Amino acid sequence: MAVIPGILASSITGHLVTSNFFKIATVTASGGETSLSFTSIPSTYKSLQIRGIARDTQANTYARGLDMYFNADSGGSSYAVHALIANGTNTFIFNNSASNYQITGTPNAGMMDSSAGANIFAANIIDVIDYSSTSKYKTVKMFTGGDNNLGTNTGRISISSALWMSTSAITGITLNSNEGGAFTAGTTFTLYGIS
Question: Regarding predicted confidence, which is higher, 75 or 28?
Fold first, then answer.
C-alpha cells in the first residue's frame, strides 16, 4: 500500500508545530498622529516582526521615510542603517552610521504621501532579531515599498538592515514620520512575536 508523505506526517503526534508566530498588539492611526507606539513588549519571544501599511500627510509624489526607534532612545548616534533603494529608473545605496534618522533612515519607502491616489498605502515588513538579549546589539531587517501610481519615479522599494547599538532589551517601539508630517487615518502596524 502506498503511503502519502503528508498523511504519514500528520499522523505523528508530538512533532507538529502549529504556530510560532503570535500577535502581540495592533496600533491604528485615526488621523493626525505624529507617532504610534508599542509598549510593555514581553520578553518571551526570540524575535519580533512588525507588519504594517502607512500613509503620511505630506505631499512629495513618492514613497516617504518612516522612522523607528527603541525604548526612549530617539538619538541618532545609537543607530546605523544601510539600504538598497529603487524607483522606476534608478537604484541607489544609502549608508548612514551614527544616523540622525533612527532605524529606518530618511530615503526608505515606508509611507506613501498625500499626493498618492486615494487609499494607497506603503507596505512594511520589519524584523527585530534577538530583541530581548542583554548581551548584544540589536539587528533589524526591513522590506518596505509603495507606488503612487502616478507615473515614472513615483514609487520606491527598499531592502535594508539596521543596528541599534545597545545591549538593553527592547520593551518599546515607536514609529513616526521623518518628513515632518503625520499619519493618515488607516495607517496600521501589527507587532508579532516569533518563538
Answer: 28
Q: By mean pLDDT, which of 22-31, 108-117, 157-166 is the weakest?
A: 108-117
- Identify the residue with better confidence: 23 or 9: 23
Number of C-beta neighbours around residue 28 at 10 A: 15
Please check whether residue 135 is in contact with residue 64, taking contact to mean a CB–CB distance below 8 angstroms. no
pTM: 0.84
* Closest C-alpha among 125, 134, 110, 133 to residue 47: 133
SS (H, E, C) the chain: CCCCHHHHHHCCCCCCCCCCEEEEEEEECCCCCCEEEECCCCCCCCEEEEEEEEEECCCCCCCECEEEEECCECCHHHEEEEEEEECCCCEEEEEEECCCCCCCCCCCCCEECCCCCCCCCEEEEEEEECCCCCCCCEEEEEEEEEECCCCCCCEEEEEEEEEECCCCCCCCEEEEECCCCCECCCCEEEEEEEC
Q: What number is the average pLDDT over the span 150-175?
A: 85
